[in-house]
Amino acid sequence: MKQKLSVIKIGGNVIENKVELSKFLQLFAGLDGLKILVHGGGKLATQLATKLGVESKMVGGRRITDAETLEVITMVYAGLTNKSIVAQLQANDCNAIGLSGADGNVIQAHKRPVKKIDFGFVGDIDSVNSTMLTKLLDTGLTPVFCAMTHDGNGQLLNTNADTIASELAIGMSELYETTLYYCFEKKGVLMDVADDDSVVEHIDLGTYQRLLKDNIIADGMLPKLENCFHALNKNVSKVCIGHPAMLYSENELFTTITL
Amino acid sequence: MKQKLSVIKIGGNVIENKVELSKFLQLFAGLDGLKILVHGGGKLATQLATKLGVESKMVGGRRITDAETLEVITMVYAGLTNKSIVAQLQANDCNAIGLSGADGNVIQAHKRPVKKIDFGFVGDIDSVNSTMLTKLLDTGLTPVFCAMTHDGNGQLLNTNADTIASELAIGMSELYETTLYYCFEKKGVLMDVADDDSVVEHIDLGTYQRLLKDNIIADGMLPKLENCFHALNKNVSKVCIGHPAMLYSENELFTTITL
Q: At residue A93, does pLDDT exceed 90?
């Protein structure tokens, strides 16, 4: 039987609140079993860019990453955010190791080809080095990923944290029984966006089609759910969407997604 | 017989010149045997601090590290500099992994006690986790260290890169036959600072005492040589000081230091 592995993605809103982050990391450190953490950190990068006079250009919620912006996100994602998370996990007896995709060559990507929009130094993932990640996990380490990859030719690339989480879960699913957790400020997929407790507790392909048809799924949730079904189609066992509390509280409502 | 391990420190002047750095990394990648790279990055941090309006205070060549300065160096050392070095080494088929002392808990330190001067978030090293570093080396990885440690209680600390290099060499010397290389812009310890070719090729304790007595050793070189003899007294096999070219060219002059 395969060992279980949790791939947990936390969003910017948890990272930007120091108290929330510290509380989350304490509880994350205590979670049983093998685990990988993936973090975003978008707003902090925007703040630093503003201070440095680097313009932040977003298209459809995605950052256009020119050379200057790439430097800013490398500083914030791989430096400030990643290392402060690692140091806090160490303080909670979790032997964390901070990684970009370049470290140990764990995630290779290619620069997104220019079609209608030139996203700049944005990477689409080609491969996850599950052998190296397994060795790190076997060493007792908990990998902590920032949202950066590399192209193998010396170029760092900005890659969406949700995508990194799903590709890691997919890449590891041959060797592990993998569950992917998307943590954000809401309790899950909501029937009514105005009602935080209207959580759809279980979504399978049939439910998904009905929710789509009835326009229940809001714009921001669409790419997330597409990511989820992509992961499930590629052998990830289960995907959960909800507040970080779903990881450690038994009474928490959240959304479970299966095929 | 112990395996050989090279701990190689490169200074700010190599890092700040993109062409020099790229040339160095290509040659470093090709070096035979187990190796660890340690990099500084001081001037880039000063430049970012200036852009952000954070004052850089130096006392005796050491940076006073308040909370804002710590954020700046975390961004530059652990983010921008470390990850661009790692990505370039990967491009040269060297399986590099970027580390601060917090990652894998590899270097623990304590905040320097306030005596005459309050250095702020500066760390003096307590321990090097040679077991973890050996596991990473055994996995085929080449650790690349930035000049940061942590205190085990969640606090990142700024630690001099020369000191990180010597403490790593010392910490690994129980398990490996360790050579420590300090690379900088000169060819080694010079008899005459105005003559770049007046390299003292071999320094032992006797030579060191004579050079000190004759005031041959310039101010900047004093703490470096003290570091060298400290390392040699703690079982490091050999220390070399010189231009990076000493690592791969047979005809290069450089200084070898032994007890």
A: yes
Cβ within 8 Å, pair B136-A139: yes
Report the gap between the CA of B61 and the closest CA in chain A (Å).
24
Q: Are A202 and A256 in contact (CB under 8 A)?
A: yes
**How much is the pLDDT for B35?**
98
Task: Write the DSSP symbol of residue A40.
Answer: -
Question: CA angle at residue A71 from B78 to B81, to 5 degrees?
Answer: 30
**For chain A, how many structural domains are there in total?**
1
Sorted by sequence, the CB contacts under 8 Å of residue A165 that are 6+ apart come out as A7, A8, A9, A38, A145, A180, A182
Across residues B231-241, what is the average pLDDT? 97
**Whether the complex's predicted ipTM surpasses the cut of 0.85:** yes
| Model pLDDT for residues A120-146, shown as the tens digit of each residue | 999 999 999 999 999 999 999 999 999
Q: pLDDT tens for residues B73-129?
A: 999 999 999 999 999 999 999 999 999 999 999 999 999 999 999 999 999 999 999
Nearest neighbour of B83 by CB, restricted to A87, A102, A153 = A102
Q: Do B87 and A150 touch (CB under 8 A)?
A: yes
Chain B positions touching chain A (beta carbons under 8 Å)? 48, 51-52, 71, 74-80, 82-84, 86-88, 90-91, 95-100, 102-105, 132, 135-136, 139, 141, 148, 150, 152-156
Which chain B residues are Cβ-neighbours of A95 within 8 angstroms? 104-105
Name the β-bridge partners of A120. Answer: A65
Q: Under a CB-based contact definition with an 8 Å cutoff, are residues A39 and A145 in contact?
A: yes
* B contact test, residue of A90, A141, A145, A155 with most B CBs within 10 A: A90
Question: What pLDDT, on the 0 to 100 scale, is given for residue B206?
Answer: 93
Containing domain of residue B191, as a range? 3-257
Cα–Cα dist A80/A73, whole Å: 10
**Which residue in the set A90, A97, A105 is minimally distant from B95, CB to CB?**
A105
The domain spanning residue B104 has which CATH number? 3.40.1160.10
- Residue A1 has what pLDDT? 85
Q: Which residues of A touch B96 (CB under 8 A)?
A: 102-104
Residue pair B104/A119 in contact by the 8 Å Cβ criterion: no
Tokens of residue A10, six digits: 């936390």
pTM above 0.90, yes or no: yes
The predicted structure's pLDDT at residue A193: 84
